[in-house]
Design brief:
It is a single chain. The chain is α/β, with parallel strands linked by helices. The chain has a domain at 92-342: Rossmann fold, CATH 3.40.50. 34% of the residues lie in helices and 15% in strands. The chain has a 7-stranded parallel beta sheet, sandwiched between helices. It has a two-stranded parallel sheet with strand order 7-9. Helix 1 links the parallel strand 1 and strand 2 (32-37). It is globular and about 80 Å long.
Amino acid sequence: MGRTVSTRVLVIGGTGPTGIPIVNGLVARGYDVTILHRGRHERAETPPAVHHLHHDPYDDADLERALEDTTFDVLIAMYGRLRSIARLATGRVGAFVSVGGVPAYRGWMNPWLHDPPGLPVPVAEDAPTVDEPAEDEKGYRIVRTEAAVFEHHPRAAHFRYPYVYGPYQLAPREWSIVRRVRDGRARIVVADDGLTLHHHGYTENLAHALLLAVEQPDAAAGLVFNVGDEEVLSVRQVVAIVAAALGHTFDVVSMPYDLAVPARPLLAQPLPTHRVLDLTRVRTVLGYHDSVPPREALARTARWLAENPPEPGGTEEMVLTDPFDYDAEDALVGAWLDAKRSVRPRAGAFATPPGYGLAYSGPGGRPRTNTDFTG
């Protein structure tokens, strides 16, 4: 539905993975949208009605020139130096919406800060954040940046992004799977049966959360929000869904984490522990629910990557650090399967094989006491 009074929104960025659906969502809702970016990545998906300011949001002087003598009702900051943007936008904007990252949480990037190692599950917005550079330099900078945002804009709405997936993502985790499909690989290695839960967010879902904050400025004011997909899929589920979207089936080879070297790019962390966000606040305060179910979002992402493959050895593969060294992978898998075969005959040595406990009633569990069911 159109607006009788046009609200002016400035998006700093607007051509990246979540920027594109945010800009399109704003235009569809009747906002008067301007994007500020360097102009190096113009997108065909950007609506013609959008105004462009070509400036460098990493250059304070250039950014100040762009913002002088102008005001906006809403500023969405998702690119550039966020501290500088917050400072220079003071007095020039109404609502301030910004994007940061989950490395703010103590232990997200350095799981050994917890004993035993690994984050609590799930992680809520009031969980401890990094307070010492020695703990995690990147996380410390992110936390200080968040503080600067609220110093200049006490009513800001700030979003902590997890890993993003979808079109144009520079760290496309799914490419480690998609390329193996395209290369005709029959096997793929996962660590510890691929059971790790690692929170990700689809581009359109993250954009939807920010749009809810724009539409509900009073509800969002002064809050930090976790944001991500409502369903957190395991690594093994991600492999299966991506492969199925491309009509492929893998023989999944599970190896202990210490040995599963080819699986590291899929984990994107130094331990196979879980990284799961608590989304209670964004759901209850803003009414967030996924626009696209994660299983469908993964399938879309797989098909997009298959149609728009990254350049071999290019930026995306360098960021992923996946060498796609199939000779080394095959040698490792062969040695592992040989080791399993050598151990298997000894595994049946238990006089009474242990089970799942008497309370378990699933497949292979405790049978019924009575043959007939009586209600």
